[in-house]
Structures are given as structure tokens and as C-alpha cells.
Write the C-alpha cells for this entry.
Amino acid sequence: IEINSSSFLNDPTLRGYWRFENNGNDSSSNGYNLTPVNTPIYATGKFGSGADLEDSSSQYFVISDASCPGLEISGSQTWLCWVTQETITSYQVVMAKTRADGTVVHSIITSADVNQFAYFSLTGLTTNTQVGGGVGFIGRKHFIAGVYDSSANKLKIFVDGNKVGEVTASGSATDTNGDFAVGRNGSAS
């Protein structure tokens, strides 16, 4: 999906949309522009450019908590991203919003476990705070969607349009007071 050429771009519930067309600017109407750290480079993405973030160089994009009040989300929410992993040697944070102490996050991550799962995690839920699924992330572009439906108490993850994980999640997703980042765990390292 290319949100830039769809009706989603004008959806009032869209909180942020980062295309990484040679910058970290937010294409939504909210203006939550991300600051690049350690000079990320840009490469061919699924649509136009994309950010090529190197873990060994600690490259990422970030916006401070105070600068993005609309990203303090509780309740139902959907997180979407295109990801191509060159290697996965440990858990890799695709995008995250953390509390200031960096200990609790809303995030999409990939892992280096045997199945190379993608995970979607939300704080505030009392059971099943994360859901995972999918395989084979190395070297291929994948569209990952993490969905929390608070009315159905369901936490789901989709890879390339296919639901690869779903759990019943009790409790309530809470907002997080911390930075939002792409390629880093928000306020944490």
C-alpha cells in the first residue's frame, strides 16, 4: 500500500506517515518530522526511497515525546511499515514509542530467532502484550502491520497482507510518555 496516493493520507486518525524520501519528514498533516541520527543513508524503497539504517553505525530517526503529543495513543491502533532486513543478529527495532525510562514500549520488532519472527507489542495490556509471526525476513521487502482492536480484545500481526498471529489481549493499551523512533527503541538505546 502506498498511503501517499490513497484516501488514507487525508484520514483524520492518521497520526504520522514517514516516507524517507531523503529526509524524515512526516507526510501526514501533523508535522511530526523525525530527526536523523548518525547520518542515515537512503536507498531504493518499495515506493520511491527508503531509509537504509545500519545497526553497526547506530543510525535511526527520532522525535522527542514533547514534540509528538498525537502519538500518545491508547486503545485501538494500527502500525504499518515496509521492512527489508539485510541481516538479523538480535532483536531489531523497526519502530517504537517508549516511556521516558525506556523500559516499556509500543513497538514493531523483528528477531533473530530460528523463524525470524516479526513482533507487535503494546504496553498496558495485562495478558498477551505481544503477538508474533511470519518467517524469512532476510533480503526481502515485507509489509508488516500490527493491529490492536480494543473492542474485540485482539492483538494481531500481518505480514504481506496475511494474518500470521493473533492473541486475545486483556487490559487496555496505554499511551507512552517517551520518544518515537524508527530504527531504535524510542527513548532507550
